[in-house]
Structures are given as structure tokens and as C-alpha cells.
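Notes from the 1:1 (GR / supervisor)

We went over the backlog. Supervisor wanted to see one worked example end to end before approving the batch request, so GR pasted a single chain during the call. The sequence is below; no edits were made to it. Supervisor asked that the structure be written out right there so they could see what the output format looks like.
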Amino acid sequence: MAQNMTDEEWRAFVSEGTRTGKLSTVRADGSPHVAPIWFVLDGDDLVFNTGKDTVKGRNLARDGRVALCVDDDRPPYAFVVLRGRARISEDLDEVRLWAGRIGARYMGEDRAEEFAARNGVPGELLVRMSIEKVLAQAAVSD
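Structure output shown during the call:
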């Protein structure tokens, strides 16, 4: 029987290892767009980078509503779905700082600066998703 995760449990779950998120944004016609992302948690915000001219970048600039799913596809299965609103920054110091932190999570500390330099450039965005709603379940197949 599925079990609801506590606040501490879902935060640990989404932050474990190199789990990616599947981010859903709203297209201009109202239809959903889903894309995989790298991210980190920062308090009550989920933080990620994207290009200003990508589909998700354009969607977020127009409509900040977002949802993110992180899951474990191995038995007994688990998932976390976060909903909220995105705030965008083009401040290059912020973009670079967080690009390095995200790069460190997914590629290792030794490559953090490489990702900060690559993604901390004009045309890249820092996105902070304020988490408003959480659905988190573990042991889905038990």
C-alpha cells in the first residue's frame, strides 16, 4: 500500500543522487510541454537553468505555472510531484552560481566550474520554482 512521504522524506528523495525531473510548462495554446531537467532544492524553491529561447524558457516567461515529477522506476516505486510558480532571473552572477551548483550535483564537484562557465552566459535563465503543492508517495507497489 502506497505511503505518503513526510516533508523531510520527499526533500531527501528529490535530492538523492542524480535523479532528473520532468518539468511541465504551459504552451501559448494552453497545452502542456514536458522536458527533463537537472535541478537542486534551495529551501522551499526548486532551482534550475534553461535557455531564454527554449520552449520551456519562452513558456515560463509568458506563464509561470509549472509542475515537476521526480520518480524512482524501481520496485517498490516512488514519486514526487511538485506544483508551483516560476520566477525568472537573468542576473549572470546568479545564473552562474546556480549553474555550478547544479553541475556539481549531476556531474561532480570537479566539473562544477565547467558547467558554471558554460551555462552562466547571456541567454541563459535562472528559474526558481516556489513549491506550492506536493504529492509524494513511496512503496507504491507494496
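Supervisor's comment: The chain has a mean pLDDT of 96.
Batch request approved.
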